[in-house]
Design a protein that fits this description.
globular; 77 residues; mainly beta
Length: 77
Amino acid sequence: MGVYDTVLLPCPKCGELYEAQSKSGECVLATYNLTDAPSEVLENINRHAPFQCDKCGTLFYVELNVSVKAVNKCIEC
């Protein structure tokens, strides 16, 4: 049996929380909300998707919108 972290995902239809497992990141049996989960934990959050809400039966997955940009951080400035 492996170690993992849990991310609580709200169903997009009814809001019921679904417990998704992540095997990326530190895997220390931590539990996170979707909004505060570290990016490394979310890296493979869809590995068992689609998820099915236990309350209303809706199938869903997590859409990750990553914004990447270069920033001027001059070491000598």
